Structure formats: C-alpha cells, structure tokens
C-alpha cells in the first residue's frame, strides 16, 4: 500500500492518478532540440539555420522522425552566430519571451519515501519558487563587458513523462533581442532536498521545437543552495570557448577539484585521489589490518579520496564507513539500478543462506560427493537475461517468486548445461584458455629451457622440470622440443614466478594452500591446444628443500596418474581463476580505469569534446568500485574468503601492477604481441599465432571499429597536432593521469605523449577498449564458466598427495574422489562465491551498449553523428561475422558438440533481454557491474 507521500506524488504526477512501474528508457524532455537558443523577432529567423531531427529508441538506435516532439534537433552554432539577429544592437525596451523547460526526476521520492515528509513533497508540488534559473549569454554584455545573465524562477508546469516518474517545470524570461546565443544555464535549488535535474530546453515562447532552441543534457544532482552551471551540447576546445562563459568553464572545474581537505559528504561532487588504505578495519579486529596499496613499497593506482579519519589501531588505515563509501554524487547508481543491484544480491544470498547457516561453524566442510555439487543447481533454472517487459515492481516480484521456488538452488551455469562432463575434459581445460572467462594469460613459449627469474638462494633451483625429453615424449616425438619452440607450437600458463613468493604465507592460512605453477600446451594440427604438462612448485624454507613435480595427462597409463592429473588441473584452475579476478578483471579494468575518470572530471570541462567522448565509458564505474572496496576486496571480504591466495589477494594484485602493468600494453594488439599471440605483418595488420583464438579474433574486430570511430572523432575536433599540444585541458588531464592517478608509474618512459592525432587516438582507443570490451570479456563469463565450481575452482585447499608422501598417496588410493572434493572449495566458500559471480555476471537494468547508445552531444554535431552511424553499422557487421564463426566446424575452439559458443565480445543487437544467455547480451559502454 502506498504511503501518504507516495500517494500524493502519484496522484499529482501520474496520468492514471496512481503509482506505476519504472522502465529503463532514457529520460528526454518533451521537446529536446539541440541548438543555440537565440531570441529573435517573429519572421526574422536566419535562413542559414538547419534542423535535423532524430530519435534514440530504448535500445539506443538512431531513427529519423519529423514530428514536433522529436527528441533531438541540431543546428550549427557557427551558422547561428553568422545571423544578423545575434549582432543586432541592444535596445532595452525590445524584449522577447524565452521559456526554459526543466525535467526533474522524482523517482527518489517513491523509492525512498522514508526520507521525505508530507510537507517537503507538498513544498515541491505547490511552492512556486524553489528552483531558480539563470540564462547566461555566450557573449559578454556589450555595455559592461561582463557576463550577461537573466534570472527567473521555474514553476510546476503540470506535465510529466509517461516512461519515467518525472515532473516538468517552466521558467519565463524577458530577454533583450541582442542577448545572443544562450551559452549556459545556472541552476539554484532552493528546496530543502537535493534534486536530480534531467534536462533543460530553452526556446522562444510558442516555438519549443524550433531550430533556435537549445538543450542542456544535465542528468545531475543539485544540492540545496548550490549553484550549478550546465553547458549546451556544443563542444569547444578551451581556446574556442565563447567569451561569455569562459570564466564559468574554469569555475566549474575548480569546484569539482575541491581543496583536498575534510571528509567528503554524500551530496558532494568532488574528485580527488588517495591510496588504497581502507581495505582493513583494525579498530574492529587487528587481524583485518591490511597494508596500504599505493606508494613505493606497494605501487598501485589511486582511488577516489573520501577523507575519512584514521583508525586508532593503525595510523595508516582510514576508518571504514558504516554506509556506502563516498563517490561524487553524479557517479552514484540511479535509484532503480541501486535497488535492482541490492535486490539481485539479496535474492542470490537466499540461495546460499541455508548452507551457510549449516556450515558457518565448519567452514572447511567439503562436499560429500560430486552429486552433492550438482544438487546445488536446478535443472531448467538457467542463467538467462532478465526480461524487461514488466514494470520494475512486477519484475522484482516475479523474480522473487521464481527465486523462492528454487530456494537453496542456483541457476544452471552454461558450461554445465552444455556438457555435464566438460569440466573433466582436457580439451575444455585447454579451450578455455582461448575462449573462456580468462583468455588473457595464455602466452607463447619463446625460450627453452624454461628458467625462473627469482633468486635461487631464496626460492630454490631456477630450472624447470619440464624437460626436453618430457615434452618430446608427450608430443609423440613428432618434432624436437627446440623445433616445437621454433615453430610456435608450445604455449604456457605461467604462474610460477608470480605465485612462488606467496606460497609459504598462504599455507599459514586456514582452509587453503598454494603452489607456483607452469602449465604447458601443444598446438595441434587442427588448431586446438592440448595440455601436456603441469609443474607445481613449493619453494624451499629453513627446514625443507624445494619441492616440485611435473604431472602429465596419464602418460603412465595408470588410474593413479589420471587422478593426480585431475588434482594438478584443479590447482592450476584455482591459480587462473584467482589471477583472473585480481588482475585481468579487478586490476586491469576497474582499478586502473578509476584514475582516468577522476582526472577527466578534474581537468576536462563538460563542454570539452574528449570529455564527451569518454564520459559514456565511465558510467557507474566509481560506484561499483566503491562497493568492491566495501564488500569484495576488503579484509575478510568475499574475494579473500573464497579465492586464492586469501588475505594476500590485494598484495598480489599490487605486485602484478608493479612488475607487469604498462598503459601502452593495455591496447589489445600490443597485449597480444607481448604475449607472443600475434605478430605485426608487413602490411601492418596482426597475424595471430593461433588462428582460431576467439577472444583475439572477435576482439580485434571490436578494437579496429573503436579505433576508426575515435579517429573520425579526433580528426573533426583537432585539425592539426598543434591543436592537441595547445589544448591545456587535454594536456592537463593526461599529465594528471600519469602523475597523480598512476603516480607510482609516473617516471616510466613508456607513457605515450599526446603530441599528435595518432597518439591521442591510441590513448583514447585504449581507454575505451579497456572500459568496454576488455571488461565484458572477463566479466560476463564468470558465472557461466565458474558458476560450476569443478570447472573453475576459486581456490585449492589440499596439497598434492605426492608432497604429503606415503600417507597422501595411500589416502588417494583409498578415496580418490574425496581427495578431489577436499581440494575443491568448501561448501561455505562455494556458497559465498557463487552469488557474487552470478550478480557480477548480470547486466544492469538500463545498460548502455557500445555502438547502440549515443551521447546526445555526438548527435548534435552532423559529422560526429555520421561517424557514429558508421561505427554502429560496423558493429552490426561484426555481429554477423561472429555468428558465422560460431557456426564454422573448422573453428573447434568455438564450435562443436557441447562447446559453449564464444559470444562475450558480440555487440548488442535487438533487445538484450531477448537473448538466450547473459553472455550474448552485448558489450556495455562502461564498467558498470
């Protein structure tokens, strides 16, 4: 039943005088022309003005329309400025009436009614003056030489949008005819509550769809008594800024930077940097103390500064917040996304609740059988996209009913749905290195024999036990080991040097163990990889020599050898799954992208074309990162509790960042070349070392499309290299990324310099690739592949029987299945990890997909609009190419009996909710989950 405040708002704003559902459609003002608003006398409109009308549908597609309520109208500001009307001498007695129509989102009133009183809602609806607007001319006042502003209050217009819970207010202005184009709108919220401004459209009275109107795409929260400045959709380099708003441009940037002092409040929009010093909570429990990440000892990217005080028990650790961590107000989830995310997480937690309760005092309890693992999943209850054909509340209730109907059971992961025995097969083990959830670790073996680069005095012998004789035996002596290296036939998952320094520390933890590992693969004639050897190593200690052994796929023909091989694979998979989560996923996307976002907001104006290019790719990333610091990567968080290497997870992530992360290697082509998975041909195109490498095949199509789109965009705004080097905001952004956001790497010589269009295109393409396609490739396959824990165990708990000696081998002979189950994650660890993997693999409501969603500023400029149309068309061509490859029987790494097709890099087409699985819903623009 609706509360009194909810009922009141619904009665006033809803056409049916009652509550209604929420949809994911974008909020657009009733009329949304994008052009400079210019006061003029009726009948004297410039003939040079041009109006192109288009709409963006719920999937982000562009469609032509000629109706009066069209969502977009564009007109070149240069054309408008050329008209005599803008240069007419000022006559104080000559004024015209201009209207500013404001859309205010009211979702928060319904979705958080507890924070609203009856009086505050009535104040919104009936108080005449709580939102004040100032129109700012793009020109200086010719009489005073100062900024030219006209102010008025907005009043409830009584209109609403049928697809979102919004209210519309209007302000009326008497504007001199010589006022010039509107260059900005300043908004002052005089209500007691913060308000989310959706959009503002300024037009001459009676001509709301005229070509002289101007649209401000705000989508921003305005705090009480805060004056906010919004700029129209025209993009300007700093040197091109209209005189009338030049000071406001700099003022807005200064406000966003803050002063680096005090604790940030939830309503603020200040962007600043800090180290990762808030992962532990030593005031609650000293065992949760964690080292600071960021600095000389443990290099790391910077996070958003929150400014909380330090703990009593550790002067280096920042206090934990009882609520969500601060992120700048406009970076926070929408009300709908926030509720959906929390509801999904809560529903998934229901599945794990029963087993957690039963095992919380026995966290090491193994599954009693493989059948018991299978019983966690409900056949027919599959991991699928959420339908969006119901309103929000109905959809939530429907999902709740479905979830409760499968209480204590999880959705069926796709890998198990396709082939229940896939996890056991060597072919699938190898295939997933090329087409699974972590296809970024496989690398070509370029040197033989294999040696460690670690200190022998500390860790033991550096040579590998994977010898020439062993390799040749495993490949049936079809060639020598040296020939296999020369012919590019040997590939490796190498977690040896990375993990060896952590082995002893991890083994001191409960319910887990660790080895360093090397896994060798041979490329067969049909283009698939075959695993031929796994080397596991424990370093030497004060009391014990180094232990290491190589395991092969049952080469001795014994049952014992086969079980040892399965156990060795379980250890390697735990290493690969942990590395995926900590490096391929968290570090290389979420963590490393946050500094780009902070620097962009601090240094690039809203009206800067590069800010508008990148902004869609930064959506919600800071909020999901804050949630990760609070719940996932924190001390005793879900990652530490269920993934290798336990409490040392983030320390390992820092070590990898220190030794391996380079911005210039984050572009897909450079990454493939570094790993030996591709070489650059004479024509400049990449030639893949493994022709059927789905991640690389599809990824290069996406990379090339992104780079072409960025090239067209950059060429439009930067005619010459001097425009790039002379752009103070652009250069300030890139300098701050290097010196503040990635401060521990600022001295590296590999950082690109922004001194040409090629260098700028490469930098921007790399950032967009990482935030969209790279993240999609490593995120949305988590539950489909790792949701069935034997296929991708998140940790390994038992040492190998041979290391344990005669006792271990005897136990293996008597209870081989139990030894395997004891090596897999415990019931408690599994039920902790599975809900998180499922939630992270879910696409958000209202997601914006690359190639389908266009930023309004892109559509406001004709050439950019055309370039985006070309980009969108290329994405649709890529869809067809990927579909063809997935049906090609020659491509055995993505097609075959029981094989999961590779669709993680397949662009969005049609309605994502109509897809069969979450993996094929598309590539989101940003890291939003």
Entry keywords:
disordered N terminus, single chain, eight-stranded antiparallel β-sheet, five-stranded antiparallel β-sheet, alpha+beta, fatty acid metabolism
Describe the fold and architecture:
There is one protein chain. By secondary structure, the chain is of the alpha+beta class. The chain is about 40% helix and about 15% strand. The chain has an 8-stranded antiparallel β-sheet with strand order 11-10-5-8-7-6-9-12, with helices on one face. It is elongated and about 100 Å long. Residues about 1-90 have low confidence and may be disordered.
Write the layout of secondary structure elements.
Elements: H1 4-13, E1 33-34, E2 52-56, E3 62-64, E4 72-74, H2 77-81, E5 95-105, H3 107-111, H4 118-126, E6 131-137, E7 149-159, E8 166-176, E9 182-189, E10 195-204, E11 214-222, E12 227-230, H5 246-257, E13 273-274, E14 303-304, H6 335-359, H7 370-374, E15 377-382, H8 392-405, E16 410-412, H9 414-418, H10 426-435, E17 443-444, H11 456-459, H12 468-474, H13 481-486, E18 490-495, H14 496-499, H15 503-507, E19 516-523, E20 529-538, E21 547-551, H16 559-603, H17 609-614, H18 621-632, H19 638-642, H20 649-660, H21 668-674, E22 678-680, E23 686-688, H22 694-717, H23 721-725, H24 728-741, H25 757-779, H26 782-786, H27 801-804, H28 806-814, H29 816-823, H30 827-840, H31 856-860, H32 862-886
């Amino acid at each position: 039943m609706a509360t009194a405040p909810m009922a009141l708002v619904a009665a006033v704003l809803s056409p049916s005088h009652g509550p209604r559902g929420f949809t994911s459609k974008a909020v657009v003002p009733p009329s949304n022309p994008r052009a400079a608003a210019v006061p003029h006398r009726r009948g004297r409109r410039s003939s040079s003005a041009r109006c192109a009308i288009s709409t963006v549908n719920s999937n982000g597609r562009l469609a032509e329309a000629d109706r009066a309520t069209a969502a977009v109208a564009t007109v070149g500001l240069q054309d408008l400025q050329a008209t005599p009307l803008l240069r007419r001498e000022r006559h104080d007695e000559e004024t015209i009436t201009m209207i500013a129509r404001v859309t205010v989102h009211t979702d928060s009133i319904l979705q958080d009614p507890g924070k609203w009183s009856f009086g505050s809602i009535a104040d919104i609806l009936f108080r005449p003056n709580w939102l004040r607007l100032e129109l700012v001319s793009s020109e200086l006042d010719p009489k005073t030489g100062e900024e030219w502003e006209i102010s008025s209050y907005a009043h409830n217009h009584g209109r609403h949008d049928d697809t979102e819970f919004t209210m519309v207010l209007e302000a009326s202005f008497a504007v001199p005819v010589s006022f010039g184009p509107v260059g900005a709108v300043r908004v002052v919220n005089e209500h007691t509550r913060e308000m989310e401004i959706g959009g503002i459209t300024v037009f001459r009275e009676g001509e709301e769809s005229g070509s002289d109107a101007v649209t401000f795409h705000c989508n921003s929260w305005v705090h009480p008594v805060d004056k906010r400045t919004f700029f129209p959709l025209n993009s300007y380099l700093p040197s091109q800024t209209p005189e009338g708003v030049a000071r406001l441009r700099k003022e807005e940037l200064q406000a966003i930077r803050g002063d680096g002092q005090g604790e940030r409040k939830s309503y603020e929009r200040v962007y600043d940097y800090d180290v990762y010093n808030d992962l532990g909570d030593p005031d609650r429990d000293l065992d949760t103390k964690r080292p600071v990440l960021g600095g000389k000892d443990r290099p790391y990217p910077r996070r958003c500064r929150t400014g909380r005080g330090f703990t009593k028990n550790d002067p280096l650790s920042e206090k934990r917040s009882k609520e969500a961590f601060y992120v700048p107000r406009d970076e926070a989830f929408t009300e709908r996304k926030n509720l959906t995310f929390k509801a999904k997480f809560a529903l998934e937690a229901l599945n794990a609740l029963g087993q957690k309760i039963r095992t919380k005092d026995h966290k090491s309890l193994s599954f009693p059988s493989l059948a018991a693992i299978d019983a966690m999943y409900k056949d027919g209850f599959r991991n699928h996209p959420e339908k969006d054909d119901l309103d929000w509340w109905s959809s939530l209730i429907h999902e709740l009913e479905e979830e409760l109907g499968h209480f204590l059971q999880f959705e069926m992961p796709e890998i198990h749905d396709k082939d229940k025995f896939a996890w056991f097969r060597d072919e699938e083990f190898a295939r997933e290195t090329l087409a699974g959830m972590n296809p970024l670790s496989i690398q070509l073996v370029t040197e033989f024999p294999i040696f460690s680069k670690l200190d022998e005095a500390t860790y033991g012998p550096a040579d590998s036990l994977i010898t020439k004789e062993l390799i040749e035996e495993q490949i049936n002596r079809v060639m020598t080991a040296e020939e296999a290296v020369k012919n590019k036939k040997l590939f490796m998952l190498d977690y040896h040097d990375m993990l060896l320094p952590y082995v002893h520390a991890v083994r001191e933890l409960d319910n887990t163990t660790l080895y360093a590992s090397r896994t060798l693969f041979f490329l067969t004639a049909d283009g698939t990889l075959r695993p031929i050897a796994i080397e596991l190593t424990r370093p030497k200690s004060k009391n014990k020599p180094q232990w290491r052994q190589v395991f092969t796929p049952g080469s001795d023909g014994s049952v014992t050898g086969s079980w040892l091989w399965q156990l060795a694979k379980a250890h390697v998979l735990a290493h690969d799954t942990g590395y995926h989560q900590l490096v391929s996923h968290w570090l290389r996307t979420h963590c490393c992208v946050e500094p780009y976002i902070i620097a962009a907001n601090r240094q690039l104006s809203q009206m800067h074309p590069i800010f508008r290019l990148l902004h869609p790719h930064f959506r919600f990333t800071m909020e999901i990162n804050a949630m990760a610091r609070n719940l996932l990567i924190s001390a005793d968080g879900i990652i530490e509790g269920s993934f290798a290497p336990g409490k040392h997870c983030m320390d390992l992530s820092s070590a990898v960042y220190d030794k391996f992360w380079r911005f210039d290697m984050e572009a897909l082509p450079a990454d493939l070349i570094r790993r030996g998975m591709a070489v650059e041909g004479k024509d400049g195109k990449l030639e893949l070392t493994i022709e059927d490498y789905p991640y690389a095949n599809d990824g290069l199509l996406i990379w090339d499309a992104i780079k072409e789109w960025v090239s067209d965009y950059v060429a439009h705004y930067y005619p010459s290299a001097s425009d790039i080097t002379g752009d103070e905001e652009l250069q300030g952004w890139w300098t701050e990324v290097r010196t503040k956001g990635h401060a521990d790497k600022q001295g590296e010589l590999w950082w690109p310099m922004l001194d040409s269009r090629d260098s700028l295109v490469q930098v921007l393409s790399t950032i967009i690739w990482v935030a969209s396609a790279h993240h999609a490739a490593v995120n949305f396959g988590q539950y489909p592949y790792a949701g069935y824990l034997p296929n991708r165990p998140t940790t390994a708990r038992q040492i190998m029987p041979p290391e344990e000696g005669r006792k271990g081998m005897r136990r293996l002979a008597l209870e081989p299945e139990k030894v395997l189950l004891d090596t897999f994650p415990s019931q408690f660890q599994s039920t902790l990890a599975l809900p998180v993997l499922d939630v992270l693999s879910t696409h958000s409501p209202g997601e914006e997909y690359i190639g389908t969603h266009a930023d309004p500023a892109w559509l406001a400029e004709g050439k950019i609009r055309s370039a985006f149309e070309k980009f969108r068309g290329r994405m649709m061509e890529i869809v067809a190419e990927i579909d063809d490859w997935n049906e090609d029987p020659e491509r055995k790494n993505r097609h075959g009996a029981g094989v999961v097709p590779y669709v993680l890099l397949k662009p969005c087409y049609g309605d994502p909710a109509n897809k069969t699985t979450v993996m094929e819903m598309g590539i989101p623009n940003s890291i939003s989950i």
